[in-house]
Amino acid sequence: MKMDHTGIAVRRINEAIDFYTTNLGGKLVHEYTSEKPGVETHIAVIEMDNQVIELLEPTSKTSPIERFIRQKGKGVHHLAYEVDNLEETIREYEDRGITFLKDTYRINPYGRRLIYINPVHTQGTIIELCDYVRSND
């Protein structure tokens, strides 16, 4: 398992993009909006050397990012770890009694399958597990 990215909740994504690219030397590589219920977030992916930052700006009052900012403030929202096979990892963790926030399971526009571990197991830290759907062509 390796670190995939860090998700950071922000209020003004353009200011955050400017900070990470101008001051920290990152490169904006993707930017997209997901209006799916339970996501409702504008996302900017910044690559910096060997790390990836996802800036997350809520796009509605019902966005989980909006709820997170109201409850905990801006800042680190989640840590994401890449696994070899998400479905197998979910089964292995569930066999150990770990539960997941099932409604967070999805595939993003770039082929990343993801799910969040229930934070009751992580002392409150939001942890995403993910893998990448690869075609067999």
TrEMBL record:
Q: Which GO terms describe its biological process?
A: L-methylmalonyl-CoA metabolic process
GO molecular function annotation: metal ion binding; methylmalonyl-CoA epimerase activity
Pfam families found in the cross-reference section: Glyoxalase_4 (PF13669)
Enumerate the UniProt keywords alphabetically.
Answer: Metal-binding
Do you know which InterPro entries this protein is assigned to?
Answer: Glyas_Bleomycin-R_OHBP_Dase (IPR029068), MeMalonyl-CoA_epimerase (IPR017515), MMCE/EMCE_epimerase (IPR051785), VOC_core (IPR037523)
Boundaries of every VOC domain copy: 2-132
Give the record's family classification. Belongs to the methylmalonyl-CoA epimerase family.
Q: What is this protein called?
A: VOC family protein
